[in-house]
Every structure is written in C-alpha cells, then in structure tokens.
Here is the input.
Amino acid sequence: MSLRRLSILAAGLTLAWLGVAAADSRDALLNVSYDPTRELYVDFNKTFAKHWQSETGNTLNVRQSHGGSGKQARSVIDGLDADVVTLALGYDIDAIADAGLLPKNWQSRLPYNSSPYTSTIVFLVRKGNPKAIKDWGDLVKPAVQVITPNPKTSGGARWNYLAAWAYALQANGGDEAKAKDFITRLFKNVPVLDSGARGATVTFTQRELGDVLLAWENEAYLSLQEFGADKFEIVVPSLSILAEPPVAVVDKVVDRKGTRKVAEAYLQFLYTREGQEIAAKNYYRPRLPELATQYAGRFADVKLVTIEQFGGWRAAQEKHFSDGGVFDQIFQGR
Amino acid sequence: MPADNTSASSARSESAWVRWTLIGGALLFLALFLLLPLVVVFAEALRRGVDAYWTALTEPDAVAAIQLTLTVAAIAVPANLLFGVAASWCIAKFDFRGKNLLITLIDLPFSVSPVVSGLIYVLLFGMNGLFGPYLRSHGIQIIFAVPGLVLATIFVTFPFVARELIPLMEEQGSDEEEAALVLGASGWQTFWRVTIPNIKWGLLYGVLLCNARAMGEFGAVSVVSGHIRGETNTMPLHVEILYNEYNFVAAFAVASLLAMLALVTLVVKSALEWRFGDELAATRH
Here is the structure.
C-alpha cells in the first residue's frame, strides 16, 4: 500500500471513530469529590439512578472525579464542569464560592452544615501494633514513621493536622508555641506527602512505608475490609476531630447545563434513610438521629473537637494552611 | 598479515571470559529491569484467570478509556505527522534566518517537564486563564475535556517526527529535488514522488515513536484531564485510578494493553531497522 493511500485510510478511520465517539452522549451529572469517597459514590450513584428513574422515568448517568480535596476545588475553579461538589471540608467549597461559582452562604442551604455524613481521624497501624502506638503523643517518638497526605492539597490531611493540633493544645494547657513544636516534630517523622488520602493509604498498605497512617475513619475501615483484619489494626486516639465533609450544588454550572433539578435531588437523597444507610455501610457516620443510633456500634466512641474551636474553616485555613502559614513554617523548618 | 591476525585473535580470546561476564551482566540487567516487570504486568493481569482479565477490559469505563486513548492518538499523531514533515522540510532543504531558533523550539517539549506542559494549557484555557472566560461564554470546553487532552498530547509528542526526519533529510540534501524541478516537475509532484519516497521509512519510524508516547503519556494529560471516569480518563490515567481503588487485576489488565502496545512498537521498530537499516542509519547521528 502506498503511503498516500495509507494516509487516506487513516484519515477515514479517524473520522469514523470520532463519529462513533460523538454519537455516544447521555444525560449526565458530574460529581467532583475527594479521594476516599470512591466506593461510597459507586453505591450511592447506582441507588440514586434507580430512584431518579422511578421518579421521573429518565435514565441518569453520574460521572465521578476523585482526587485530593483542595486539588479538586482548584480544578472546579479552573473550569471542571462539576454539577455537584462533595469535598472533604468546608473551606474548599468556600474557595469555589469565592471564585463566584456558588453563593457564599452555600453551607446553610442543606441540613447539618451541608454535611450529610461525618467522619473522624483514626490511626491505622500494622498488625500487632509493633511500635505500640496508642495516642498522638506516640507519633513524635524518634523511631516512628508517620504517613499522612499533604495538607496543601488533601482535605483529610488538614483534618489530621488539626486533630493533632487540638491534642497538642489540650496536652499543653493551651500553649500555642508548644503545640507548634509538637506538630513540627510530628512532621519530622513524615517521610513522604501524597497529594490525596487514597495515595497515602496505598503508600502505607501497598508500598508498606511507615508505621502508622493517619486516616479517615472510613478509609481505615475500608483498608481492613480490602486487605483483611490480619494485616492492619485501627487505633483510636484519646481525642480526635469531627470531620464534616460538605456537599453543594455548583449554581453557575447547573444553571448553564440545565441540571439544577437533578443535582439538587441528588444531594437531598444523601439525607434520606436510603442515602444514610449507604453512607453508614461505607463507614461514614450517618447524621439522621435514628440511623446514628442504629449504627452507633460500628464507630468508636471518641471525644471529638469541632472546627468551630478553630474559629471555622476560613480562620483555620488562613492561620495554618495559607502561603506562609503555620504549616509552611514548620515544614520548611524540617 | 599473519602477525596482525594472531594479535587480533589473541586479543579476542584473552578477553573471552570478560566478554561473557559483560554479556551475562547485560542480559541479567535487562531481564531484571525490563523483562521481569513485563512478566509481572501480565502475571498480575491474569492472576484471576482469563475471564477476570476480559471482564476488566470490557467494563464500560475501561472501554471508554481505550476509546479515548485511541481518539487522542488518532488526532495527535496525524497532526504531528503533518507538522513534522513540514518543519523538517523547511529546516533541511532551505536556509533562513531563525532556523536554529526553530530547531530549538521543536526540542522544547523534550526538555520541559510534562506536568508543566499540562499546566500551560490550564493557564491558557482555564476559567482563570487567558482565553477561558471567552471560550466558556461561547460554550467551548478545552481543558477537562477531549480537546485539552489532544492539545497536551500534541505538545509532548511534538518533536518525535521532526527529530527523526531532520537528520535524514539533511543527509540526503536537495539534489534530487533540484533535478526533478529542472526536469519540469511541479513542487507538489516533487514532494510526493521524490521527497516522500526518500523519507518514508524514517517517517514511519517517527510516527511509531510518536504514537507510542501519545498513547502512554501520563503527566501532561493528568493535569488537564479532570479525571472524570468514563469521559476524560485515558488508559494510563485509568490504570492509576484502578490501582488506587485496590482493583489490581483490572489495573494490570489495562496496563498489559499498554505493555502490548510497547511490544508491538518494539517489534515493528526492529523490523524496520532490520529491513531498512541503511536508510535509517542516517537518522542515528
């Protein structure tokens, strides 16, 4: 075959292929989420699509994108067409609101601070807990390697950091300088910072780096389920933080795409009994009181501080994670 | 001369064990660093049997990733083919000011980190970028969609065709083209009947390498993809997602397709070299 004929054939095939690709379009919702919710939304999307079809008769295809919460917010700000965002913490949606994609009062639009489920931070250690890690204080011992993702990009990492900070404040009678020293020593023990929670989990479980993983409670339980309880165990510290991963409709996007109705129904479904059951089965703490009681045995009873004790997410972000904030200072000082 | 012969053969026989140690070392090294990982990819992919392997490859998101990768390559490779031929034609057959600058620019994607290559497009076409708001108001989506993936892929695979052709064309000079023109051929005829036949094997070689990189690129496309599964995940990105979801069989199944692509590329490349070694030799300066 001559080159010319070959090139004509190639061009023809390309056009045919593009035609096929273009013909395949369906009704879709894009949910941009943080890292460990992959399994949660696989289950939830299936159930909601069924519900939506029985309500309206329309088929629905929910697309997912996952990554570190801060990174995902950045992508939405840069133009990733998310109908709904389900991120790890309020500040990341605040940042999207600051870019003008949704109103600043977004968090009051849905019940419970727009967080249909909560979680907390626990430790995952190797079976038998060889380094005898019981509480936050054990993480700063010289021979302990701690795995946590990067607070700059990951939501879970910011909850990790703040929980450690809360513990240090409590242990030192509220002395900020001592708390800062504690965090500095903790991050001295961190050999690698992944950009998202799932990356950190893979680092700990697959690459077998580190002695303890600071993890979302749901992520820790999932690891036990995936790899078997004979490899890892969960350690619940004396104090942790109430992590509220919020959800929101991105107004600018749904109004442009005409998907507001389905996007709102999608988030509201998270608050129904069915939605809450799915969350609980995936080890997220449900909000509805009767389900919270029903699944109470599933989750450790631990004293939890809230983000309000840090003056809310904007203040916490500004103080600790902004450029030149406390995290930058202690991490550069490593 | 017999004396020379003896010394040459004794030089060879003396170093026999050294030679075998070196050859053995090289083979061991290859086996350890190239063959073993390849075997592991296929072993992992087939660990739960052929059925699981097939299921992983025919699952809708995997099919979408394969389609997307082929689509992106089907646009990026011809684009770079056209550009590469045009650029090397200019550079090899003509003299003009700024020629060295052009050569340097062509090499730029080789020296820029792929992540930066991706970020360039976010800065240009993102909502906070130069053209983002304008494009959005006209309903055009570049990044976090197929066009962005294509652009990033074109950028990182830019030099492959041109880099193959420039030395080849320079070596051949422009005598044959001049002869054709003197004999009355038009420019177009000269190009199709003289230039293209002279460079076709080098061209094919360049396209092959370009294609391999286009399908395998991770860094640049990762930045512009948005990671929407079933929509903007190319095969390499899909492998990462599956791996992060503890879905190791599926991850390695998709990875094995990429490995097979590499193997096919390698075989075709070797075949080309074996069959047309002389013509290709010019490209290896």
